[in-house]
Design a protein that fits this description.
alpha+beta; Rossmann fold; 7-stranded antiparallel sheet; 6-stranded mixed sheet; 10 helices
Length: 434
């Protein structure tokens, strides 16, 4: 589960942004918190977070930063990819990362803290990648740190410092030799390669590396521009003798959501790279099968693509981060999904949901804790991020859990909202016509 994420000099966030998924000392909806124990200490995390703010304030950049850092960890380097592989172009073209006003000697920094396999993992990375759109800059990692349960395992800046690896003795490679490992590691550092994926994995602990890599790969799910996500079911080989695959859980959910046809099917013997959903329609006493996008609403198609990922997140106990989760989906469906993440009888493995939204209906003290309501606002120096709980409970700007969050948001008590008036544009256009 995600505990904290920071970034600096990333797109609209010139100053450091600190996104916390740990609860503050408030008494809101305590049943919705995720609680775990590690060596006698209790760890708590938020089950969800909703990010609010006007257009172009930086909401998507919060999710984009997580996506880019995840990609760097999985790739193990700070080089560009040959091809564009994702809607988040900065994942493949790192020269798009720096704030547009940054100088070439201003580092881009990331930090993440998460809990997995009964250990708290902290990773820190700072790199010089030039200024915005500086393709020719000779990139360099200037800081990289790894902590396990608050114990430093390594720190790389001007020199490489190896911490107390005896604290992870059960995870060290076979025939581990600290002297040999340090000698090889300090003489073979590559400015563009992560120490984690190379030297640490091969010379110190492949087990620790695999735990970290697996969390980023499997348990840190990020859907950037979720409206572009397409779900294709994995069909087992024992079903290849039938023509269609029917997912009973998905059909039950989509019928509750809103389905025009009788049933949703997936073709098994399709030669397409993408398996498209089909609608089974009862027509004149028989059954007709058509492509689902011929017959279903766009909202239903979006639900078909995203609900299986949500189901998988709950099943695996993952952290799901979604850009535009509620686009074309009724807010009542989203509210129910949020409540499922808050229900510890269903969410038994501690899954988390983080999403950005414009819909004020989720600003509800019966649905979200104050520290689960996040805001992003753009100021002169760039985007800033804060939580509703940051206002405290006292004074004229204090916020209590009995207040009408939505009403207060629209009267600009919390910021992260923008007055918009297009009437001048239309008045000018009318004058042109006259």
């Amino acid at each position: 589960m995600l505990l904290e994420f920071k970034m600096k000099n990333f797109k609209s966030f010139k100053e450091e942004m600190d996104f916390k998924m740990t609860p503050t000392r408030i008494k809101d909806l305590e049943y919705s918190l995720i609680t775990r124990n590690i060596k006698g200490d209790e760890i708590k995390a938020l089950s969800s977070a909703a990010i609010y703010g006007p257009n172009s304030a930086g909401k998507t950049n919060v999710i984009g930063g997580m996506d880019v850092f995840r990609s760097i960890i999985l790739n193990g380097n700070i080089r560009n990819k040959e091809n564009i592989t994702t809607p988040n172009t900065a994942v493949d073209r790192l020269e798009l990362i720096p704030n547009i006003e940054s100088e070439e000697n201003e580092p881009v920094s990331f930090y993440i803290k998460f809990f997995t396999d009964n250990m708290i993992v902290e990773l820190r990375l700072s790199m010089l990648i030039g200024g915005f759109l500086d393709v020719e800059y000779d990139r360099k990692i200037i800081n990289e740190e790894l902590y396990i349960n608050n114990n430093l395992l390594y720190k790389r800046d001007k020199e490489l410092i190896i911490g107390r690896v005896e604290n992870i003795s059960e995870y060290l490679i076979e025939n581990f030799s600290k002297d040999t490992a340090e000698k090889i590691a300090t003489t073979n550092l590559d400015n563009k390669e992560l120490f984690l994926n190379g030297m640490f994995k091969s010379l110190y602990s492949k087990k620790i590396f695999d735990i970290i890599y697996r969390w980023f790969k499997k348990d840190f799910k990020i859907l950037y521009h979720a409206d572009m996500i397409h779900f294709s079911p994995v069909i087992s080989s024992d079903k290849k003798d039938t023509k269609y695959y029917i997912d009973k859980s998905l059909n039950k959910a989509v019928k509750d959501f809103g389905l025009t046809s009788k049933q949703i099917l997936y073709p098994i013997n399709s030669e397409k790279e993408r398996i498209e959903p089909l609608s089974m329609i009862e027509f004149k006493g028989g059954k007709v099968i058509l492509p689902a996008d011929f017959f279903e609403s766009f909202g239903t198609i979006r639900f078909l693509n995203i609900f299986p990922i949500i189901l998988m997140t709950i099943r695996d106990g993952s952290t799901l981060v979604v850009d535009e989760l509620d686009a074309s989906i009724h807010p009542m469906a989203i509210m129910n999904i949020i409540n499922i993440f808050h229900n510890d009888e269903i969410n038994t493995k501690g899954a988390q949901l983080i999403f950005n939204t414009h819909n004020p209906i989720f600003l509800n003290n019966a649905l979200l804790r104050r520290d689960e309501i996040k805001f992003v606002e753009k100021e002169d120096k760039g985007s800033i991020h804060y939580s509703l709980s940051d206002f405290g409970t006292n004074g004229s700007n204090g916020v209590r859990n009995t207040e009408d969050y939505m009403k207060n948001y629209f009267v600009n008590k919390y910021g992260a909202i923008k007055d918009i008036d297009f009437s001048g544009v239309f008045i000018n256009e009318n004058r042109k016509e006259n």
